[in-house]
Amino acid sequence: MPILKNNMEEKKVRNIINGTVIDHIKPNCAMKVLSILKDIDQECLIVCINTDSKKYGRKDVIKIENKFLQENEYNELALISPEATISMIKDGKITSKEKVKTPTHIKGIGKCKNPRCITNCQDIETEFDVENGDKIILRCVYCESTNEYKN
Amino acid sequence: MELENFISINDLKKEDIDFFLKKADEMLKLLDSKEPLDICRGKILATLFFEPSTRTRLSFESAMHRLGGSVVGFADANTSSVKKGESLADTIKTVESYSDIIVMRSPFEGASMLATKYCSIPIINAGDGGHEHPTQTILDLYTIKKKKNTLSNLTIGLCGDLKFGRTVHSLAKALSAFNNNKIVCIAPNELKFPNGIKGKIEEKGTKIIQTQNLEEVIDKLDVLYVTRIQKERFLSEKEYLRLKGVYVVDNKMLQKAKKDLIVMHPLPRVDEINPEVDSDPRCIYFKQAFYGIPVRMALLSFMLKCQS
Ligand SMILES: [Zn+2]
After folding, report:
1. Please, what is the end-to-end C-alpha distance for chain A in angstroms?
2. ipTM of the complex
3. Do B129 and A143 touch (CB under 8 A)?
4. Structurally, what CATH architecture does the domain formed by A105-148 represent?
5. What is the pLDDT of residue A1?
6. How many interface pairs between A and B have CB atoms less than 8 angstroms apart?
């Protein structure tokens, strides 16, 4: 049945023939998701914000035409929206569908909360090791301070 | 073993620490011989001190001179191009072509780690904010080893600012790699040893006891490591003044201690050790500062791949 359900949703925002569909994004978080996706500024994007979701009430959806996101490109999304799913569409068919997994390492996302951290005084990308327990803990690669991740 | 950069005490395994302590002993023998050395002849050390620290810088410079090498550098970021807004990356990329090894200190945590990303020559972290100061840890271990002949089966008291004091964090971590040590943390509640680090140390099987009262535990200690309570860590002057005089090691206090206790301090001290005890043979902080020389000689010569 998932194909039918997906087809119904496709009516709201047009189908793509080839590309990636990021579904079940937390409502109003699509822009945040776009801000962490790399190398998409040349792509054709379809963004739907606050659409109905049977499972969660409301959700956002992003479709990226003719680009197939790699796992290392989309797993960072788990920090924004852990329920998001990633589907690959090839010739109009869903060839794979997966839930995002929390990455073990992130780069260029978030700020270290330690005011004395070097990342807060030089123009460089932040980097964190992600510890995924009861809470998600981001350990700064530079100053090693731990930042509890809050959505 | 390989040691490309020395940024954190975690860069070293227990065997590596043993290796450097042995190497420091060789250096000490060479120093005792009073012969001029040429182990690092032709090599240049750059000392980049974005935050002033006279002791640490002089110790590194002296070590390099003793090895027969030379030194360039700056001691104060105010007089360097850093003040003019140059990025760390640019400073490092320039200096690496002037020298063979870099020692740097910065008020910012993680600065040395960042510097390694731009640098093709070895970097030694001489302190990055409240984060790490790994060569201090090696010299602390070396001092304990010299005086106690072992790094195991010891009861070590850490006293003073255990919350912000990076030297005690690194020392405690390093000691937990050795067998059957007991660490007694002596600090006011506000400056307690951080739970995160405590947990990691206990995981390795080292016992940690916490107390606020030095007098109560001093007779059990083999080593007493005293740290300064730093004014810059406090938001209010009042809070600082209330806590700064909490612990004072004086003759009266030492009367209760073991005859073979050693009292250590990373220096500079303020009033946590009364100068009246300086002549007590148990107080070895000046010797400890001297041991920085053979330890840094060992590290510099090894990282420069110079044979002694
Ligand atoms: Zn940081």
Report:
1. 32
2. 0.86
3. yes
4. Roll (2.30)
5. 45
6. 46
